[in-house]
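Example record

The entry below shows one chain as it appears in the dataset: sequence first, then structure tokens.
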Amino acid sequence: MGWKREPLEDYEAEQLLEAAADLSPSHHLVVLALLRTGMRADELAHLQSHWVTFDRAEASITIRATQDWSPKSEAGLRMIPLRDPNLIRMLRQHFSQHEELGISRTTIWRRVKAAANHAGLEKRTSPHVLRHTYGTDLAARGASAQFIKQTMGHSDLATSQQYITFSGRRLHQEADQLFS
């Protein structure tokens, strides 16, 4: 499988997060949210406070259509579990003062690009690359194709299966590096 937008390796994702945190809290929130939720840039741009549940045991984002916006497909209407304590803290802080994220899809792209440049990443990095990174990370951790499909909002299970296939390839590449 040859993706045009190859997922980041773990160390690259960490470099990107550190660079985003260096730039500003808003850069950090954008990059962290994309890496830890797999949301599309447009979904993140439309994120509203009432989509987020801060229940300690089951924090989540439930993507919902609004009067002015709807996700890419019906499958995009979904619940995304939140397990990263830093993301939960940052979302809670942001939404204690605002009803919505309040930035455009273009601004999200610019923040991701700025963080990638600041991190010195050579790999093409975009919000969609961070979505691929999330999906691949889920697969590498042993998530089922059905879980990936539901949390990422795929219409087709075959799309989700690609992450499992790709994560297996990454495991073999890593093994080759370790044992050569």
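Notes for this example: The longest strand covers residues 60-62. Helices lie at 10-23, 25-37, 41-45, 85-95, 105-119, 127-140, 145-152, 157-179.
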